[in-house]
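Homework help thread (please don't just give me the answer)

Our assignment gives two proteins as sequence + structure token strings and asks us to describe the second one. The first is just a warm-up. Here they are:
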Amino acid sequence: MTNKGYDNPQLIISAGELKDSLNDKTVCIVDTRPAHEYTRGHIPGALHLDLFGLSLINTSQETYNTFMWMIAYLFQQRGIDHTKTIIWYEDISGTRASRGLWFCEYLGHTNTRVLDGGYKAWLAADGPVSTEGVAPPEVPQFPIEAQHDIHMDADRIHASLNQTDFIPLDTRTDDEHYGRVARAERAGAIPGSIHIEWLNNLDDCGAFKPAAELRHMYEAAGITPEKQVMCY
């Protein structure tokens, strides 16, 4: 297991560890990159599911429940087997793969990991590459055991803004945070947000930085363990 000092090291897997598990029938590997990148070359046996465009602008409970039901159905249709360890990857330790892991955790499937450093780390480790597409196998229905405590809707966030121990953490780009670019209905950020772009979590190779380095960065920004942090 990768040792970078994390409290939950089971959430990531190194390229070397994945190479050793490549023929393990209890592992399900999912490539979340765009289709054209997948067809140029991917980890042998990896299913394909580009998660980038799957998002929701209405977080009311009824709409959100429907959305997550759709995600669970999509996972089943793409052959993602909840009885296995599900490993997500993209080019680096990025937002697509992390989204896949978070969907699994919300649905109640905790046996899931992200490939640290992504496909770039796989190539650097001389991992084998395939250009053969993988047909989604028939798998059981993906169960939903919703973990409501790891999600906050807009109303709950708004009601929490005046709490001194509540921090909205904006992980978007500088241009989005400062309102120079709008990818939502309005430009700007949630009031009181601390801004740390997600790329700051990664080293020059696109892998996650060690825990000590990340802890120093977040504590310097005022993000400490006793506070409730809402990432967006």
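The one we have to describe:
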Amino acid sequence: MKIDSHVRAIPGKPFIILQLTDMQVIDAAQQRTPTRLRPDEIEAWKTEHVEQCCYAPIRAVIEKTKPDLILITGDIVYGEFDDSGRALAGFIRFMESHKIPWAPVFGNHDNESAIGVYEQCRMLEKAPHCLFRRSTNLTGNSNYSVSIEENGIPVRVLYMLDSNCCWGAADPDTSRIYGMADDQIAWMTETAQSLAARYDHLIPGFACFHIPTEDYITAMTNAGYQTESDDDGGNYIIAGTAPASGIDADVPSPNTCEEGNPQTVLAPAHPGDTGYKNERMPRGRFQTARSAEFRSAHVDGVFMGHCHKCQISVLGGDSIRYTHGVKAGTYDYHTRGRIGGTQITLTPDRNTFNVTQIYV
């Protein structure tokens, strides 16, 4: 099984990956019906406000982390507000301006755009620094692999996976199934096994997609970061997590949740656990558990998005770290001060990594 894209790491130095998720750029000028958005939403999400709502916080977190690679776990645009493709094109130009390799997957809203998934894929594939490759033989459209290499040898592989579920799309080439299909999981496992056979050792991997799997809910519940009776998700923060920032204090933000004070401060259940949560994650709402398949593919880190006010990184009982990324902008619902990104630092041995939630 071939690797689709390659990124070079410098031996002996940490390798920094920045996870961005759920920008959900909304261009209010493109709403399909005049009553889809409220007046305050139309004002806040005008075309010209994309800088303060999205680009400014992302620019700040890039400057803070100085990443070697950026991965995006879905919902770049809220597709029903980008039928022209203008918002996606603008975001691509913005990302390309940093001249950093970046690897996106689609979320459940991206492919709602009337321009169609093929055109969205074409736009991403022609961007020089974008590693995206459209999958033509697997369920979904954003399945591809990225290897981090030293001296031409893979030391870690990112499996970028389409979690599908874009029910609002009219394009028949968009998959409406819920979650990853078996053929996608088989591709990941077979690629990992092929690499192990070729290089005569296991190569650790990250699985990156949009909608969480039930493994994440289990890991949070077992760690005490959620109880089955959390009707509203609570207002929790793990001790040691960075405080909220003030970058969006003056940004018009409809549907904003104020963080609230005091919060329930939880001790980390495992070294390295971090994050903030103010959103219920009920069982049965997310993808099928995939722990066994992740382990078969030598995956020790899973990175997801989708839930804008859940930003917990937790070590599961399966020794896999499950991380929900920080929302990267102020479009749609979010917690004020809890926007930015997630820094993943690969240690020089590439076998271990740590996660830091960054609020800018």
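TA reply:
I won't write it for you, but here's a hint about the kind of observation we're looking for: The CA atoms of residues 29 and 137 lie 36 Å apart.
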